[in-house]
User: Which sequence fits this backbone?
């Protein structure tokens, strides 16, 4: 039976592995080590932009993760132990710096999309990911519905999210989210901005 609970900091290593695995970062960055480093960098960035985070479990195995940013709420405070773990100084500084620049450029592209729509949103789904092994079993839908309920409880009237062609963005079409804008960054890579009224 699937359960959803608040994120615990001890979940961090498993989520880093999940991001690396689901997005095939080892292939994208040449090997497992580089994939895991980028996953750590990306997860650290997600946590710095989130106010609430939840995870799903099935038979004690972590199966999914969803991070929310609700306007007017405080960002998460990352314990020093996990700051040291995630924001590490790798021996190859130039490689780490190039990864950070990729994340920064992605944010810039997303901001450009947001400026096109001339609308404000009460919340954002910062990251939503389900382990490949557990996809197409209803876990994503339950987590998505759970997050909408949280947003409604917090008084949000609408929310948005960014996704891209590496993800299963058709999921959001199926859940009545509206495609607001898109940007084809490269021939085989497009960023999408979705929104929904609650």
Assistant:
């Amino acid at each position: 039976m699937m359960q959803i609970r608040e994120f615990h900091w001890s979940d961090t290593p498993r989520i880093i592995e999940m991001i690396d695995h689901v997005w095939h970062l080892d292939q994208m960055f040449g090997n497992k080590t580089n994939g895991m480093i980028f996953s750590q960098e990306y997860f650290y960035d997600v946590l710095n932009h989130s106010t609430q985070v939840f995870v799903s479990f099935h038979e004690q195995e972590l199966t999914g993760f969803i991070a929310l940013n609700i306007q007017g709420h405080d960002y998460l405070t990352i314990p020093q132990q996990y700051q040291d773990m995630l924001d590490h100084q790798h021996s190859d500084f130039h490689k780490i710096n190039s990864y950070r620049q990729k994340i920064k450029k992605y944010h810039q592209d997303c901001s450009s999309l947001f400026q096109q729509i001339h609308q404000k949103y009460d919340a954002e789904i910062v990251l939503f990911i389900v382990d490949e092994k557990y996809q197409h079993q209803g876990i994503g839908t339950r987590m998505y519905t759970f997050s909408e309920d949280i947003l409604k409880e917090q008084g949000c009237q609408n929310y948005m999210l960014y996704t891209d062609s590496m993800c299963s963005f058709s999921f959001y079409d199926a859940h009545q989210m509206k495609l607001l804008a898109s940007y084809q960054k490269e021939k085989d890579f497009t960023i999408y901005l979705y929104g929904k009224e609650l």
